[in-house]
Design a protein that fits this description.
Blueprint lengths: L1 H9 L9 H13 L4 H13 L3 E2 L3 H9 L4 E2 L1 H10 L5 H14 L4 H15 L1
Helix pairs in contact: 2-3, 5-6, 5-7, 6-7
Length: 122
């Protein structure tokens, strides 16, 4: 996605690899919960490296909250990309539509993001 590439280029998104210990902890979390591998790895990285976790899974967000971890969602990453002018308003709306085709997102959330984006655009 161009939003991720733009975020990496600007330095506000980082791609990192887990070390052996982190990989082991993520595997344990994966087996103890109903979250996916990506969420388990994001949680471990956020916990170990004091990083922001991007989580869309409800159970993963509950774990993050229980661990007092800072976290956000993919929708908010897209909104941040818009605010930083990495993507346009039209690209934001298009990407939100694409996102709703691959995962469930409340129409209230989408409506709120578009409302906020219109305010930023003024």
């Amino acid at each position: 996605m161009p939003e991720i590439e733009g975020g990496i280029a600007e330095g506000w998104v980082q791609l990192v690899s887990l070390d052996k210990e982190e990989t082991g902890e993520a595997k344990r979390l994966l087996h103890e919960t109903r979250i996916g591998q990506g969420e388990a790895e994001a949680l471990v990285l956020a916990k170990r490296r004091h990083a922001l976790a991007v989580l869309d899974d409800k159970e993963a967000r509950a774990i993050a909250k229980g661990w007092n971890l800072e976290h956000t969602s993919t929708v908010m990453v897209l909104f941040e990309a818009f605010k930083r002018e990495v993507i346009s308003y039209d690209e934001l709306v298009e990407d939100l539509a694409k996102l709703t085709s691959i995962m469930w997102i409340s129409t209230d959330v989408i409506t709120e993001m578009i409302r906020r984006a219109k305010e930023v655009r003024r």
